[in-house]
Amino acid sequence: YTISAPATPAFSASIFLRKKAYDLNDMSFAGTYMINDRILLARTDKPYKTWEEFKAYIKANPGKVSIGSGASQDAVEVLRSVAIKEGLDVNFVMYKSGGEASADLIGGHIDACELGVGTAGYQAARKGDLNILVNLGAGEVPDFPNLPKLHADLGHPFYTSVPYAFILPKGTPEEIRATWENAIKLALQDPELQDAMLKAGFSPVFMNGEETKAFCEDAMKTLPDMLEFNKKAE
């Protein structure tokens, strides 16, 4: 049987390209094994240590603050929507990878950067070399339980979380799909696997097939709204 293990940006790519969105009914979802949230980080020597302090700093220095992105268009659009909503004049810098973005952030070439958990920037934050200002996603970030969530805690209408899941083609026998679903659930109950994932900065999260599909559908519904919100401000 054919099976794939994509992250949700694979579904959102067509929306960014202004093309027809994928029909999730053409797929059979087995389940999610991990959620990777995007986080905003800054160097510890900066005058801002919290999200609110960072916004105040941007307002006091319009047009002078640069925010990098570790190659996540979704996260950039979330931050752009924040800038529009809050009236922040800020510059965005897109990198080809989280590695390049992490290097420039640590090197002081940008003022802040959004990155995924598990990146070099996130590992630096674990060591106390970088500050995490806010969680752009909906989940929990390992080792930072009190990190404010932009959507759930601060009331911003948009967010970005990236679930990693196993998906089969439409028409795959239910017995096969259910077998995969159960295998994912059982694998995530392994303490050694959980420990290895958490050490790497990844959150082991199980969602069954129906929950995974619903999560992806919600993400695909809110993305066009966010893009339209941002476009109106251009």
Description:
The protein is an alpha/beta fold and 234 residues long. The chain has 2 domains: 9-35 and 167-232, D-Maltodextrin-Binding Protein, domain 2 (3-Layer(aba) Sandwich); 37-135, Periplasmic binding protein-like II (D-Maltodextrin-Binding Protein, domain 2). 41% of the residues lie in helices and 22% in strands. Strands 1, 2, 3, 4, 5, 6 and 7 form a 7-stranded mixed sheet that branches. Strand 2, helix 3 (73-86) and strand 3 form a beta-alpha-beta unit. Helix 1 packs parallel to helix 8, helix 3 crosses helix 8 and helix 4 (98-106) packs across helix 5 (120-126). It is globular and about 60 Å long. The termini are far apart. Belongs to the UPF0065 (bug) family.
Lay out the secondary structure.
Layout: H1 9-16, E1 27-43, H2 51-60, E2 66-69, H3 73-86, E3 91-94, H4 98-106, E4 112-116, H5 120-126, E5 130-135, E6 161-169, H6 174-187, H7 191-200, E7 203-208, H8 209-232
Helix pairs in contact: 1-8, 3-8, 4-5
